[in-house]
Amino acid sequence: MTEQIIKYSELLLEVPKTFLKKVEAFRHYIEVNSDKLKSKLKKATFEDFKKDLLNLRDTQNEVERVFHKDILKCGIVLIDVKNIKELLLKNIKELYEIYKVMLIYKIDQENEDISTEVQSILTRLKKKPENLEELDELRQYANSLDEYIKTNMKEKIDAIRAKLNLMEDYMFKMSPEDFEKSWRSFGLPSRVAYKAEKCLKKLIGLEKNFQDDLMKQQEDLAAEIHEIDVELEIIMKEDNYEKYEQVSYMFSQIGERLDRAQREAEVVNRRQNILKWKVDDYSEIEKIRARWAPFNKVWSLAHEYHLKIPNIMNGPLSSVDKDTITNEIIEAWNDLFKLEKQTFKIVPHM
């Protein structure tokens, strides 16, 4: 008899224990740390939101199923669950609100990001190109926006729309101002496409102006090359050594003009390629440079000699670097000797 009473008592105790285990499963929802959760949700993915909200809905249903009455009868034990039920449902409601707020935060953030990005695109499309290179770059950029709209923008807008759908699934309400931001984002692809098309039409007119500029540039470059050639022919005949300073400067200037002409030729050829024009041959510049180089070498050495030697001969002996001076003189002599025997063999005055 005693054993039966003990077993019965243990059985009665097992009923509350089972119930307490069920309650233990809701412990996570008894206390809500709003700040900690918001911080976590800022980094959460859309899938995290979906999963958490589904768990929250299941928990709410389970709470309402388990605590279906304010007082539950477990065997001969009566348990008052009204307070715990109210606390759990209150906290679950608070959690729903946090998820709603953070979903709106995410949506606003994504709306702001795409709006900023589109504004940057529109600013770039408005910029007036200063030359053919900039025009060609802008044209390529405008043409690339069609693919950008189909992929990048669509993906971002789909992400916003998915969050709005999730808001609707859980009957979360948002302010008209917040919804309007998303509505504006949905219209951005059309706006970008329109501005890109408008930009491309504008570039057609600008390209005609740049074509005229290029023809003028070609004429000016041809005239400059001819002028350099003529001036070089004149100073190549100079044989008055006493004018070493003036003549070396003139050859130096010719060299700088050849460098500028070469850079200009590269620009012209690049722009001809952009327009799909026949590319001009500017090999004449290098031919002129080949004639210029030996004369420039002689006169620059002459000028250098008059700058250095007086200082070496008249300055303190301690300031003279014997090895450096010796090497410079030998190198200069070798250069001049080669020029005398080869390039200037038939140029007596040099």
Provide a brief overview of the structure.
The chain is mostly helical and 350 residues long.
Topology:
Layout: H1 2-24, H2 34-42, H3 46-66, E1 71-74, E2 77-80, H4 82-126, H5 132-169, H6 176-186, H7 188-235, H8 244-275, H9 284-314, H10 322-341
Helix pairs in contact: 2-4, 3-4, 4-5, 4-6, 4-7, 5-7, 7-8, 7-9, 8-9, 9-10
Task: Describe the model.
The protein is mainly alpha-helical and 350 residues long. The protein is built from ten helices and two strands; from the N terminus they run H-H-H-E-E-H-H-H-H-H-H-H. The protein has helices at residues 2-24, 34-42, 46-66, 82-126, 132-169, 176-186, 188-235, 244-275, 284-314, 322-341; strands at 71-74, 77-80. It has a two-stranded antiparallel sheet with strand order 1-2. Helix 4 packs antiparallel against helix 5, helix 4 crosses helix 6 (176-186) and helix 8 packs antiparallel against helix 9 (284-314).
Radius of gyration: 43 Å
Strand order of the largest sheet: 1-2
Order of helices and strands: HHHEEHHHHHHH
| Distance linking N and C termini | 139 Å
From the helix content, strand content and strand pairing, which structural class follows? mainly alpha
Shape: elongated
Q: Are there runs of 5+ residues with pLDDT below 50, and where? A: 1-15
- Largest sheet descriptor: 2 strands, antiparallel
Bin the helical content: over 70%
Overview features:
two-stranded antiparallel ribbon, 350 residues, 10 helices, elongated, mainly alpha
